Write the C-alpha cells for this entry.
Amino acid sequence: MNAKLKSSVEFICNSATQADIDQIYQALLIGRDRLARMNRRALTAGTKVNFSSRGVDYTGVIKSIKIKKAVVECPVAGTAYNAKMQRVPATALYNVPLNMLVAA
C-alpha cells in the first residue's frame, strides 16, 4: 500500500463519521462506473478476455456488450452436440461485469 492509501484506510477505521463513509462510498461507486465506461470503450465483440471468479481464472471471447456487463463465451470441459448431432467443443456463456474483464 502506498502512503496515501494507508492514511485513507487509517482515517476510515479510526475517525470517520457516518457522513464521511457515505461520501467515500459514493466516490467508490462513481469510480467503478468510470472504469466500466472505459472498459466498454476499449473492448468490443470478438475480443479475447480474461476474468476470475471465486478463485478460478477464465479465458473467453466477448459475444456482446451490454450497459454494465458483457456476455463472454468460455470453453468448458466436455463436448456438446450441434443440430446435426456432431460432437463440438462445449462452451458456456457468462454475464461478466465490465470492470472484471482484462484484455488477453
